[in-house]
Amino acid sequence: MKRVFKIEGQRPLNGTVRISGSKNATVALIPAAILSQGGPVTICDVPEISDVENLTVLLNELNVNVFQNNEGHLIVDPSNMKNVPLENAAVTKLRASYYFMGALLGKYKEARIRMSGGCYLGPRPIDLHLKGFEALGATVEYDKGMYYIHADDLRGARIYLDIASVGATINIMMAAVYAKGRTTIENAAKEPEIIDVATMLNKMGAIIRGAGTNTITIDGVDCLQGCFHEIIPDRIEAGTFVIIGAAAGKEMIIENIIPQHLESLISKLKEMNVNIETEIDRVIIHGGNKLVSADVQTQPYPGFATDLQQTITVLMTQAEGSSMVRETIYAERFKHCQELNRMGARIDVSVPRSMIHGPTPLYGVEVTATDLRCGAALVVAGLIAEGITTIYDIEHIERGYENLDGKINELGGHIWIEEVE
Ligand code: EPU
Known about the structure:
By secondary structure, this protein is an alpha+beta fold. The chain contains 13 helices and 23 strands. It has helices spanning 23-33, 50-61, 99-108, 127-135, 166-176, 192-204, 235-248, 263-271, 309-316, 335-342, 372-384, 395-398, 404-410, and strands spanning 2-8, 13-18, 41-44, 65-68, 74-77, 110-114, 139-143, 146-150, 158-160, 182-186, 207-209, 215-219, 228-230, 249-255, 275-278, 282-286, 295-297, 321-326, 346-350, 353-358, 366-368, 388-392, 414-420. A hairpin with a 3-residue loop joins strand 15 and strand 16 (282-286).
């Protein structure tokens, strides 16, 4: 039996939705918490998603005590931790399990872990992470799907990233917190999730400066402690709901949002003639405007996020004229286009670009979520399509969106899970 999403489209959405804690921050903060040598780390606003369940499996393997307290906060207590090899299949269920490389190397000078998994978006090498570990004094071996990373001593180093990689920046930060002396990461990624991880590590006692700029320094310390940390709101979930509001909303209020994190999306939506108001921690969208086409090029933060490229494509199918999406981060992130064309869209893909010719009505058919954000895009498409849309492979969506169906139903949509053969 397979679980599918069914969506009855064309119901106007109205009301308020609250955004959960950031998935891409959470999946780094949980491995970062094991760096504590003095008591538990308490993390507030952890989203209920399957990526967190899989990270919990890995924490259990490492004999880290992890549980939810009465207030719903996640407690990660590494007091009795053991640095065993991470061979569990849970490693391959998500991308972010690679953060245990940096965290274990930082704490024990040794990490043994399987190759991580995650959405297929074309090749996703981790050479920059490994070069960073080597610059700190580690040796890296790869044998039969396992990485063996070891250092006699970790020493601060100057590391230039050829690409401003989110994962490499965070992994190197974690490996360097206990290294002797100063580590400098140049051409570091600037995503808000990096600032969030640096903020938590600093609360634990690390000395990290410059997170959010392209030069980060880490001065090694001897001991990190537990702390309390509240995760930033998920800018990609927020962006997804903003796009839902623009596509299918009457009046939608999106709360627990940091509008600054969404500047590139909001200005693009204004260009498309979406009626959108921004307040301190919420955004209000008035639907019903006639949309016009626009072009988008994905860029590292603060540019237009690749993780919102697939969902804005759906909105472009409803806009007058031809829109272009140029993907500069993951050349093959276009699998959603084929699915959208099955629903009635007219999208031509010529990697790394797609041309969307609108407006076209969409119809409910059977489609497949080939990856997480493709799944989100298909949900948006289902909400505006005529008839019932069936989405297969929803486990991709459940990796990264907390209670997506429940939140949409609260707004007046009709989406439900069915089991099919
Ligand atoms: N890259 C390399 N070598 C490396 C690392 C990256 O060539 O060692 C390349 C990648 O192939 C890609 C580019 O550099 O072309 C940027 O990759 P980055 O390392 O920044 O991405 P990531 O850390 O693997 C995170 C998010 C992704 C998001 C990207 C870009 C997590 C767990 N994942 O991935 O999120 O798309 O940054 O912002 O934080 C998602 O949430 O759906 C998702 C895929």
